[in-house]
Amino acid sequence: MAGVFSGLVVCAVLVFCVVVPSFATVYNVGESSGWTMGTDYSTWTSGKTFAVGDSLVFNYGSGHTVDEVSGSDYNSCTVGNAITSDSSGATTITLKTAGTHYFICGVPGHCGSGMKLAVTVGSGSPTASPSGSGSSSTGGSGGSSLPSGRNTTTTKTSPYTPDLSSGANFSPFVALGITCVAFFMLVLS
């Protein structure tokens, strides 16, 4: 019985060490304003630390899109060359790779009216800050333009799509839980 108890303690410690630091942050783009014209998204991103595994949630009305674009298309507000595009009104994008990622509204004129967002994603583990933390500002003239050379870190090999997770991918928590169950089955047999 002591072996089962010590095995349980080891599994509990492993679960805590794997799960606690891996909470990803969900950022509501633009907070209560959402994805709309007239919001200063460069102010919205200031003070936030984005990490691989975090998610961006774009909420918007009809007549808008969320397009992931190259750095040069972001800077010039060029529409029609999107890497990915969604117009569902509620787009969730999981940040899967480090680097700077660029998003605009693909409706002509909307990017120039401020519907553009550049997010620099660090390669570290996801942050554990509260969902949607940070400040927002409305009435701005749009995000600031970044130097055209900034797109050198953009990764196009794994384009972002709305997160439609399949059951085939196990989180570290689930994998650890399966390992613990297997361990106890061996100990009890």
How would you describe the overall organization of this protein?
With 189 residues, this protein is an alpha/beta fold. It has one domain: Cupredoxins -  blue copper proteins (Immunoglobulin-like, Sandwich), CATH 2.60.40.420. Helices cover 24% and strands 19% of the residues. It is built from 4 helices and 8 strands. Strands 2-8-7-4-5 form a 5-stranded mixed β-sheet. Helix 1 runs antiparallel to helix 4. The chain starts with a helix and ends with a helix. About 24% of the residues have low confidence.
> Any idea what the CATH architecture is?
Sandwich
Coarse shape: elongated
CATH superfamily: Cupredoxins -  blue copper proteins
Radius of gyration: 20 Å
The assembly state of the depicted protein chains is single chain
Beta-strand segment tally? 8
Structural class: alpha/beta
CATH hierarchy class name? Mainly Beta
Strand content: 15-25%
- Domain module tally: 1
Helical segment tally? 4
Main sheet properties: 5 strands, mixed
The helical percent reads: 10-25%
Along the chain, the helix and strand elements come as: HEHEEEHEEEEH
